[in-house]
Amino acid sequence: MLTAVGHSANGVYFSERLPMKIAIASVFAIGLSTAVCAQTQSATSASSTSGPVVVQRVSFENQTGPIPQTTIYTPSNNGLYRINVYMEAVTTNPSNSGIGQIKAFLEYTNDSGTTQSPVIDAVRPTPSTNNAGSGSTFVVRAIANTPMQFSTSFPHTPPVQPYAYSAYVVIELL
């Protein structure tokens, strides 16, 4: 017979006389459950710290005209990517109060081989939006070895000088 008195890592107390086999089996079970809990906790901690990975950051600052199609990233693997775009008018002109937007586009190829080119953001270079920005976030499924290309356009009347805008793009692999 063994008298076990004490405290284990998982809060189990023994204070009675137990046959030796039961005491050893109990101690083994407590140790095993503690090890399993520690492994589970470790795996949970590791998975909660991983997340999207930034694969590219691009800045187009103080632009005064349309940005032509520019390759900003070419994925090496098929995957889901989160695209974050922020644009802002940084210099405005009162003469621009009636013009349309400056629109941004991202061209990429999805799994079907179809090239996509959605409008992803737009700003107006008018005095009422001076230093005001606009942001968009969306997810795409892009295939490997095909470029993601960024561009802007003025679908209506081009802005009157002086004006300038900036565009910032962050691409994350999900």
* Rg of Cα set: 29 Å
Elements, N to C (H/E) = EEHEEEEEEEEE
- Strand elements, count: 11
- In CATH, the architecture of the largest domain is Sandwich
User: What distance lies between the first and last C-alpha atoms, to the nearest angstrom?
Assistant: 58 Å
**Uncertain segments:** 1-16, 22-47
Helices and strands in order:
Elements: E1 2-7, E2 13-18, H1 20-49, E3 53-63, E4 70-73, E5 79-91, E6 102-109, E7 115-116, E8 119-123, E9 133-142, E10 148-153, E11 164-173
Antiparallel strand pairs: 1-2, 3-11, 4-10, 5-9, 5-11, 6-7, 6-8, 6-10
Offer a few descriptive terms:
11 strands, four-stranded antiparallel sheet, 174 residues, disordered N terminus, five-stranded antiparallel sheet, 2 domains, elongated, single chain, 17% helix, alpha+beta, Jelly Rolls, 1 helix
Structure in words:
By secondary structure, this protein is α+β, with helices and mostly antiparallel strands. It folds into two domains: 2-49, no CATH class; 53-173, Jelly Rolls. It is 17% helix and 47% strand. The protein has one helix and eleven strands, in the order E-E-H-E-E-E-E-E-E-E-E-E. Mean pLDDT is 74; it is low at 1-16 and 22-47.
Short characterization:
The chain is of the alpha+beta class and about 170 residues long.
